[in-house]
Amino acid sequence: MPRVLAAVKSFPAEFRPAPKDQRRRMSSPTLTSRPGGALVGRVRAPGDKSISHRALILGALAEGETQIEGLLEGDDVVRTAEAMQAFGAGVERLGEGRWRVTGQGELTEPADVVDCGNSGTGARQIMGAAARVAIAATFTGDASLRRRPMARVTDPLTQMGALAVTRAGGRLPLTLRGGALKRISYRQPVPSAQVKSALLLAGLGPGVEVIETDPTRDHTERMLAAFGASLHVEARETGRAVRLEGGQRLTGTRVRVPGDPSSAAFPLVAALIVPGSEVTVLGVLLNPLRAGLFETLIEMGADLTISNRREDGGEPVGDITARHSALRGVEVPPDRATSMIDEYPILAVAAAFAEGPTAMRGVGELRVKESDRIALMAAGLQACGVMVEEEPEGMIVTGLARANHPVQGGATVRTHGDHRVAMAHLVMGLAAEAPIEVDEPGMIATSFPGFEALMRGLGAAIGTPGPAEAR
Questions:
Q1: Quick one: pLDDT at residue 327?
Q2: Residue 405, pLDDT above cutoff 70
Q3: Which of 267-281, 365-379, 400-414 comes out lowest in average pLDDT?
Q4: In contact, 257 and 44? CB cutoff 8 Å
Q5: What radius of gyration do the chain's Cα atoms show?
Q6: Which of 175, 191, 300, 421 is most exposed, with minimal Cβ within 10 Å?
Q7: Which domain-ending residue is among 210, 232, 256?
Q8: What is the helix (H) or strand (E) element at residue 243, kind and residue range?
């Protein structure tokens, strides 16, 4: 990979995300994890995906230069980097995780369709950024993203004055024409940081108020302030209101991206369920609106300790150590879902090794992620001998640790191209009685490039199937 990339019309072929079908050909069609010895070591999680997307988008909207350190270089984020370049920003890769974005204060009309790959975060936020300018842009994505609902963001953008032409059901591909927006006050019917962020980016022109019944991750608010915007956050009895005055301009700045708690969850839960393990993940984002999984694991009896707490780039950060623990089932409060929505697949794995039932409710949003994560996790866990009761808006996983009934494993799990479903089952295979195989492992690079190498460095037996398993 070149040490320095100039701002050109496209990234070098070896760095550009490959189409989904090509990614399958580039890697083994399956990946297998096997029970083995203890996991030990200190690692650093990839940069936070949510903050990485926002750093690129706000850098493109700002005037001047934005220097980014620790950017996640997964497929989703690289798609956003390419999109910002298509909208007229200068985007350069300076080294591993080090990027420079040069913005002109406004986006310009792209010459071609903007392909957001698998990234709902990128697609929805870029729509908001583009809506504030009198340009037209057509958005698409891979097969998974084209199934995900976009009306939740195009509806309020239309209320502001944008014009959206979509497929039936409000799905991609869609064309958005922006400009001449008006200020609105919008109460979110479904908690969504992506929609809130899109409206805040669109509202840099006319102003906007977004009212949340359940507070969602606030990275956009924090980063807007770092780029020089003035906004007001008001706590209310019924939730929270975020107000942004109109006519604001952003100025380029420095952004340091902390470690992604959603990615850190995989080696940490692996340490909790594999006997004799002790793993530390350095520099993990500890934003209270993202820490629901860690709170839940501690309630389950997990030996988790946080050290070296500090603030970095306006976000709380710390080092998290996990040691093998005897876990017990809990009832996860539904109102905690927004702070851990991406972590329910790996929580389900922790629950499989706990004593008693773990109830996860109020998480219907999981059915419209990259896949129906409730259905896929239930099917995968059941195939590995775990008791699961699937509900319309959640599931109950019953661990039998007290009965000394181990997770059997020995299954091949269909992931439908969902990176988090794949990684969750690979972690489960490290403590199961028999190996667990997942298909489409190339999609793991969407959020966690280097996952296999990092886990193997801790002592995990993860790799391609052995001869006996391949038969």
A1: 97
A2: yes
A3: 400-414
A4: no
A5: 22
A6: 175
A7: 256
A8: strand 239-245
Q: What pLDDT, in 10s, does the model give residues 49-86?
A: 999 999 999 999 999 999 999 999 999 999 999 999 99
Q: Are both 86 and 146 inside the same structural domain?
A: yes
Q: What is the spatial distance between Cα 463 and Cα 365, in angstroms, rounded to a whole number?
A: 31
Q: Are residues 70 and 39 in the same domain?
A: no
Among candidate residues 76, 342, 418, 439, the one labeled active-site is: 342
Give the residues across from 312 on adjacent strands: 315
3-class SS of residue 319:
strand
Q: Is residue 450 part of a domain?
A: yes
DSSP string, 327-388: -B--EE-GGGGGGTGGGHHHHHHHHHTSEEEEEE-S-GGGGGSSS-HHHHHHHHHHHTT-EE
What is the DSSP code string of 115-172?
A: E-TT-HHHHHHHHHHHHTSS-EEEEE--TTGGGS--HHHHHHHHHHT-EEE--TTS-S
Alpha-carbon dihedral angle through residues 371, 372, 378, 382, given to the nearest 10 degrees: -50
pLDDT tens digit sequence for 86-140: 999 999 999 999 999 999 999 999 999 999 998 999 999 999 999 999 999 999 9
327: domain CATH number is 3.65.10.10
170, amino acid identity: G
pTM for this predicted structure? 0.85
Nearest CA to 455 out of 73, 97, 40 is that of 40
Query: Do residues 202 and 160 make contact, with C-beta atoms less than 8 angstroms apart?
Result: yes
Scanning 237-304, the segments in alpha helix (DSSP H) are 261-273, 292-299
**What is the model's pLDDT at position 469?**
53
Mean pLDDT for all residues in the chain: 91
* Same domain, residue pair 276 and 228: no
Assess whether 75 carries a catalytic annotation: no
The number of folded domains in the chain is 2
- Structural domain including 445 reads 20-48+259-470
Each residue of 172-227: pLDDT tens digit?
999 999 999 999 999 999 889 999 999 999 999 999 999 999 889 999 999 999 99
pLDDT given for residue 25 in this prediction: 35
The tokens for 430 are 């490290």
Kindly compute the dihedral angle of the four CA atoms of residues 224, 228, 231, 232, in this order, to the nearest 10 degrees: 110
